[in-house]
Design goal:
Layout lengths: L2 H8 L1 H7 L4 H22 L5 H15 L6 H6 L8 H7 L1 H9 L3 H24 L6 H26 L1 H28 L1 H6 L7 H7 L3 H4 L5 H28 L5 H21 L4 H4 L6 H14 L3 H11 L5
């Protein structure tokens, strides 16, 4: 299976944006994304006990540092569920690393540094367990799994573009917000699935402020209180996504491929957030946008995403659910 097939099997949605990136940036981002999916698989694996997950995450870090053989991890997941895309990606970790080593040394360093740091953060949170006390805890977790990705991508863009290189320090805080915004929407979208596997990423202080427990949040008898908690989460996501839009608008119009690589996931997130607002399906399954909406967003932004004024207007349109 080649890299593009692995990328599309892992996430068709993210693949849409990554494949719009120019040349080496596309390959580099594909490699980085797949390496992080290996980390995600080891972190989220429901069949492994916590201690084994922590051990494998640290072993994966040693592989990335060149201090261990990847085959030990590949063999560990050789019999994993083939219906799990992340398991398939992990089974191809050796090939992904070979692609990494074919990239320019500066790109290898950027990717390895951020993937290692993110993986160490995942190991730390796996050890802590499902205990998110307040918003600072949630932001810390989301930074490890997504905010660092914002840093990674910005540094790759800076490698490619002198313009971005000159603005790098200025936009790095926005890169973090971009990651937190996408991840907050992901947390909202996956609340039910996470609860079923024993994790609740909603801060305990949010629950306490409304006066319900994490179990009651998924109890139909407490729907009104649960929706108030959801309001706190969607408001938080919206704050981050507003900063993410500033990040996109800071990229020049002539870097249209790079802009689109950022615009697609941002607009998908804005629309998913709109669909999730005051929506009890979040507590039952998940709220998500349709394929038709995805196609329309891709078409619209490909045509007009070079215009910051248009992006402001379009993001506002996507954030409204028409009755």
């Amino acid at each position: 299976m080649n890299l593009r097939d692995l990328l599309r099997s892992a996430s068709r949605t993210f693949a849409i944006g990554i494949e719009r990136l120019p040349g080496t940036l596309c390959e580099a981002t594909t490699v980085a994304y797949l390496l992080l999916r290996v980390s995600d698989y080891l972190e989220d694996n429901e069949e492994m006990p916590t201690d084994e997950k922590i051990s494998l995450l640290n072993q994966w870090v040693n592989v990335l540092r060149g201090e261990a053989d990847v085959q030990a991890i590949v063999q560990k997941v050789a019999q994993a569920d083939a219906s799990n895309p992340d398991a398939i990606v992990t089974q191809h970790a050796h090939e992904i690393l070979q692609h990494l080593y074919s990239l320019p040394p500066e790109i290898q360093e950027i990717i390895l540094r951020h993937v290692i740091n993110s993986t160490l953060g995942m190991a730390r949170w796996t050890k802590i367990g499902p205990h998110v006390n307040d918003e600072a805890d949630l932001d810390d977790y989301m930074f490890e799994v997504a905010g660092r990705v914002g840093y990674l991508m910005t540094q790759l863009f800076a490698w490619y573009s002198l313009f971005v290189r000159r603005k790098q320090n200025e936009i790095m805080p926005l890169a973090r917000e971009f990651g937190l915004g996408l991840q907050t929407v992901n947390v909202i979208r996956g609340m039910r699935e996470d609860f079923d596997r024993g994790w609740v990423y909603v801060p305990q202080k949010f629950l306490a402020a409304i006066g319900i427990s994490s179990e009651q949040m998924f109890d139909p008898q407490h729907r009104q209180e649960a929706l108030k908690v959801l309001d706190l989460m969607t408001d938080k996501a919206e704050r981050h996504l507003r900063e993410a839009l500033k990040y996109v608008k800071s990229l020049p119009w002539w870097l249209h491929g790079i802009r689109l690589g950022c615009i697609y996931p941002l607009m998908f997130a804005i629309r998913t957030l709109a669909v999730s607002r005051r929506n009890i399906e979040v507590f039952e399954t998940e709220a998500k946008i349709t394929r038709a909406e995805v196609k329309k967003i891709v078409l619209d932004t490909t045509l007009w995403g070079w215009s910051n004024q248009w992006l402001d207007k379009y993001s506002q349109e996507l954030s409204v659910i028409k009755k």
